[in-house]
User: Fold this.
Amino acid sequence: MIELQGQLVVGAILFALGAIGFLTRRNLILMMLSVEMMLHGVSINLTAFGAYHHNTSGQVFTIFVLTISACEAGLALALILALYQRRKSLDVQLWGNLGETDLPRLVDDTAPPSHPLPTVDMPHLTPAGRMPAGPKQLPSKTPSKV
Amino acid sequence: MNSFLQHGGVLIPMLLGAIAVWTLLPRPEPRAWVVGSMCGLAALLAVLGRLAPPSGEWMRDGLFYVFGGGAVICGTMMITDRNPIYAALWFALVTLCTCGMFLLNAAPFLSVATIIVYAGAIIVTFLFVIMLAQQGGTGGYDSAAYQPVLGTIGGFLIMGALLFTLQQWGGIERRPGETQIAGATFVKPPQDVEDNPLSTPPLRGMGSLHAVGRSLFGDYLFAVELAGTVLLIATIGAIALAPRRAQGNL
Assistant:
């Protein structure tokens, strides 16, 4: 059946494109999305073989792939957020030198500077008067340690 | 030289595709996107035309080319887009095209479930994280790929090996002395292995949810339990890993 071969070709191309994306992108989130694209290629293969052999096992395997990719996305987002809290950046190259200090460092390929958002002229409101007296500050509670 | 000519139908599109992806990968200086997209489209047309020729049913063929070509094109756009938000949206399109391929493979339930899980949950969550992390404009790391030459060569070596194996195995072209296209005897189902008893639906019942449910909760019941356990552990792990607030506990 030639149609099966066409589906396998599309699955192989998606897999390889996902691999290229994983290897070349620096954004942590885009790397995870590339991995999901590789999983899509595998899922196409599974369902194509299932339809070809007239067997539902392929669809069941794809359901398992879906489950595992959901687990992976949840864990990866938690990890990415933890990493982002440390360095305030999603650049994966910042984490490229986790080895011992006396070992030679990896290729130090620094990213170009970031492009900030274009600053637009915001309208300024004319002052409407003096600042009114605020409410009296309540005595702040000292945090009681339990 | 002879073998090169014989396999040129796979090698030349691979070369074109590698040039296309290398040209389109993000870099600080402007990209030659016209050259890249032309090379990529030519490579895609050559590969699909050689390895997946039309089978005669014009409706299925049309849907296959739309979904398959769309998946490949959107995937290329995803890995080459400089803006991570647009890349995530391209990934949503890849998911939709993949779901179309699932429909062609008689898996309508799986197609809808994938749309809900990916386009409804995963993409939105990733978009949230991207927007959370990049409030001050796009980072410079998105506009420069890391080692684009090596990555492209490696990826297209994998792809070339896969497609070369497919071509050798399936053999679209007629070999000398054969009257039938060799692709007709592509992969035989194994005769000496017993089928899973609940996974072979009746003749017209391939796409039904009934067949999938019988197989899932019949033949693969232990695997379902294991997958549930993995989900539970992943939930616990995600909660434990999530960055904690400055005060209070989770």
Remarks:
- Chain A is about 55% helix and 0% strand.
- The mean pLDDT of chain A is 83.
- Chain A touches chain B through 84 residues (CB under 8 Å).
- The CA atoms of residues 36 and 69 of chain A lie 7 Å apart.
